Amino acid sequence: MKLKILLTCLLLTFGYAGQACKCGGPGSVEESYGYAGVVVHGIVESKSLISFEETLSPDKVDEVKRSLSMHQEFFEACLVYEVRLRVIESYKNEVDKVVTIFTTNRGASCGFRFQLGQEYIVYANEKVNLHSFFFTEKGDNIQRQNTYWTNRCTRTAEFSEREACALEEIKKENYELSLPDVLNPYHQTSLVVMP
């Protein structure tokens, strides 16, 4: 029995060859605001580990499963955190009073570490390039409605009064940027830790 536990621990610890999270880091408040689909200040009400499958619209699951080949195990593995965030203030675009934010659960995939009960300013988008790791199609309109993705490459961070003031100023100006997609923090260069 002890041998089984030891082997399981070793496999979980050393059984993955991964890459580190690679991104340029967060841009300025203005740049990050321009890239994000929504920017909100909120408090984490719940956080649970779910499968990638659970991030999808229920009517798209079978279609996505059919397009998978060798990545089936990642599709069903619990590699995504689903964070329910009670919105205190919305700085960009109107959202529900409670929003669902997805982020990956591994550092190599640039997942953000939310803590229950903490306040954050979250920069998020409805789409994420995670879909490209599971199939080659564009991935439009496959995820659940009214859900968003974030990662460590964005300016998502614990609430700061200074950041909130800067966002209020941008909101007043109705600031929009046309920025090159190559610098978009939602397109980090590494994601899934492969077995």
Brief synopsis:
This protein has 195 residues and is an alpha+beta fold. The protein is built from five helices and six strands, in the order ααβααβββββα.
Polypeptide structure, described:
It is a single chain. The chain is α+β, with helices and mostly antiparallel strands. It starts with a helix and ends in a 22-residue tail after the last helix. It contains five helices and six strands; from the N terminus they run H-H-E-H-H-E-E-E-E-E-H. It has one domain: OB fold (Dihydrolipoamide Acetyltransferase, E2P) (Beta Barrel), CATH 2.40.50.120. Mean pLDDT is 76; it is low at 1-17 and 186-195. It has a six-stranded mixed β-sheet. A hairpin with a 5-residue loop joins strand 2 and strand 3 (98-104). The chain is globular and about 45 Å long.
Question: Which SSEs are present, and which pair or pack?
Answer:
Blueprint: H1 2-14, H2 29-35, E1 38-51, H3 61-67, H4 72-76, E2 78-92, E3 98-104, E4 119-124, E5 147-149, E6 157-158, H5 161-173
Parallel strand pairs: 3-5
Antiparallel strand pairs: 1-2, 1-4, 2-3, 4-6
Keywords for this structure?
single chain; 195 residues; alpha+beta; OB fold (Dihydrolipoamide Acetyltransferase, E2P); six-stranded mixed β-sheet; 5 helices; 6 strands; disordered N terminus; disordered C terminus; Tissue inhibitor of metalloproteinase; TIMP-like_OB-fold; signal
